Amino acid sequence: MVGVEHRTTFDLIPEAASQARAVISDQLGPEVSTKVLEDATLLVSELVTNAVRHAPSAGSPEVELRLKVDDERVRVVVSDPGAGFVAEPRLPTAADGSGWGLYLVDRIADRWGVIRKDRNEVWFEIDVAG
Q1: DSSP per position, 49-76
Q2: How do residues 74-83 score in pLDDT, each as one tens digit?
Q3: Which of 2, 22, 33, 106 has the lowest tally of Cβ within 10 angstroms?
Q4: Which stretch of DSSP H or E encloses residue 124?
Q5: Which residues contact 70 (CB under 8 A, 6 or more apart)?
Q6: How many whole angstroms from its chain centre is CA 114?
Q7: Which residues pair with 114 in a beta bridge?
Q8: In this structure, are residues 33 and 74 in contact, taking their beta carbons and an 8 Å threshold?
Q9: Whole-number Å distance between alpha carbons of 80 and 63
């Protein structure tokens, strides 16, 4: 598999999640299995939606998507101007209308984490082998 790297930014608006899904589909579609593509698309959608909901709109109001795929894994980083948070996924109840994002990332991704630099970064990796 030829390595793919892609970086793009979106305004912090509700449409950012669908724009990010389109990037994942365009960039990963020909490179990975349908299962990996579906999982990556879902997780990107959740993380970008979280960024739109929780990041401040002052300063640099953009969410950035970085994508890298090689023979072993897909790595995605979603960054925003937020203050960061403690990475503790919780099990939402059926009555919760939201709150499933990090839970899904924790259950689906092979590895994930949160890094606070000048921006809040949430990353995940999905293994493509096997």
Answers
A1: HHHHHHS-SSSS-EEEEEEEE-SSEEEE
A2: 999 999 887 6
A3: 2
A4: strand 120-127
A5: 1, 3
A6: 11
A7: 122
A8: no
A9: 5
Query: Cα 102 from chain centroid?
Result: 10
pLDDT of residue 118: 80
Q: Read off the tokens for 84.
A: 């960061």
Instruction: Give, as one character, the DSSP assignment of residue 113.
Output: E
Q: CB of 104 within 8 A of CB of 45?
A: no
Structure tokens belonging to residue 101:
């994002």
The stretch 85-105 carries a mean pLDDT of 65
Q: Which residues contact 109 (CB under 8 A, 6 or more apart)?
A: 39, 43, 124, 125, 126
Domains of the chain: 4-127 (3.30.565.10)
Token digits for 57? 């709109």
- pTM (2 d.p.): 0.86
Enter the DSSP assignment of 9: E
Tokens of 46: 């959740």
Distances (CA, A) of 54 to 12, 39, 51, 69, 103: 10, 23, 5, 28, 16
Q: What is the pLDDT of residue 101?
A: 79
